[in-house]
Specification:
Blueprint: E1 2-6, H1 21-29, E2 47-53, E3 62-67, H2 69-72, E4 78-80, E5 86-88
Antiparallel strand pairs: 1-2, 1-4, 2-3, 3-5
The chain binds zinc ion (ZN).
Zinc ion (ZN) binds near residues 38 and 41.
């Protein structure tokens, strides 16, 4: 389990070589989207959200994780299953 927060200002970012962050995440992990990664949320995952570990600063790694729209708009830190965190470089 990891405590993360949503990263603001990432909605214009697109992955290289993929149509969506969902496609990116599924290709990288070899898994399919299922439930939202937020612990305690039972919604289906809808998008690959950009998150950062709560303890990290903005120059550390970012992660893509499956989230529902509701969790993608959380402004408070929340807990996710850490095996669903796929690391990306903020400068990619
Ligand atoms: Zn959710």
């Amino acid at each position: 389990m990891a405590t993360v927060r949503n990263i603001n200002g990432t909605s214009d970012r697109k992955p290289d070589e993929f149509d969506s962050w969902k496609d990116f995440w599924e290709s990288r992990t070899g898994k399919s989207f299922d439930n939202c990664s937020c612990i305690g949320c039972s919604n289906k995952a809808e998008i690959g959200g950009h998150v950062q570990k709560e303890s990290a600063n903005s120059r550390d790694f970012w992660y893509i994780t499956p989230l529902c729209q509701n969790c993608n708009h959380k402004t408070e830190p929340f807990s996710v299953v850490d095996y669903n965190l796929e690391r990306i470089n903020p400068y990619d």
